[in-house]
Amino acid sequence: MLWVGPQNNKDFQVPAPSSEVIFHAYPQSPVAEKVRVVFGIKGLTWRNVEIPRLPPKPMLTTLTGGYRRTPVMQIGADIYCDSQCIIRELERRFPSPTLMPTDDQGLMWCLSRWTDGALFDQTVRHVLGSAGDKLDKDFAADRGRLYLGEDWAEGLRKANADLPHLVAQVRAPLSWLNAQLSDGRDFLLGQAPAAIDAQFYHVVWFLRGRWADGPSFLSEFTHLVRWEENIQAVGHGTQIALDPQDAIALARDLEPVSETGVAPNEPQGLEVGMPVTVMPDVNGGEQPVAGTVRFANAESIAIERNSDEVGTVCVHFPRSGYRVDVV
């Protein structure tokens, strides 16, 4: 493998508490794995706060104001929800090695809406459906509600009955990836790993680790298996455990540093200081997060909120895939 990532530096300086990356996730989360690969590409040292797989997640929702999905990244009193926001902010703060080694950044973000949306949802139905009656009931109820809607039990039953079709739907894009890698390249865009590698890898990682037939299914794609090994060699950077109470205390002791303002051509008429709620734009039964607009543009919105537990924090969300309502 030709790519040589960041090297350990004996003179490495531990970042100040106000700028260290704190990652709230649990080990089995495929979306968290996506971000962990990004940490590896950038060679970052980061703090790991392990959260529960299932609600309630009181320490996490204290920081976010109610958002319960995994993962969440914290830098000081700025809280980043959804891997879209997390990856974009990591690239901004730590530009080298870049996650965008070609000039196709716009196309990469467009493709990510498919990998994180339709493709991932398809894979979740595939994995949950294949588990059938073996799936933990509490886990099935929680994730089924998130990904299949209110009638999740019927959705899981249909997924189990329709499993051969679901496998065929996942097989097609994996064959495309395999063809992309057939010229011997190490990563999807060439010899250096990119954000798009992490975004596809988390789907493949989920299939291999959570579907009993995953390893045999994936063995068909020999170039893809080689690529998986290359991604695994990138690693996850260096993680240091952190107690959730310490993460909350850090947010309480600091102030948000994100910029303030609303970009031109704002379609919802948002203004700084306007009260809003933000939540995923799906019927997942989730709690909206309330606050006041601090920043908004085409890609993201940041809302400021206050509580006795965390003081003033700024919670960041993507605009794509999230609903903003003026209160």
**Helix-strand topology string:** EHEHEEHHHHHHHHEHEEEEEE
Q: What spatial form do the alpha-carbon principal axes imply?
A: globular
The quaternary state of the protein chains shown equals single chain
Mean pLDDT: 93
Characterization of the model:
The protein is of the alpha/beta class and 327 residues long. The protein folds into two domains: 165 residues, 3-Layer(aba) Sandwich (Glutaredoxin); 129 residues, Up-down Bundle (Glutathione S-transferase Yfyf (Class Pi), Chain A, domain 2). The chain is 43% helix and 18% strand. Helix 2 runs parallel beside helix 11. The radius of gyration is 20 Å and the shape is globular. The relative contact order is 0.17.
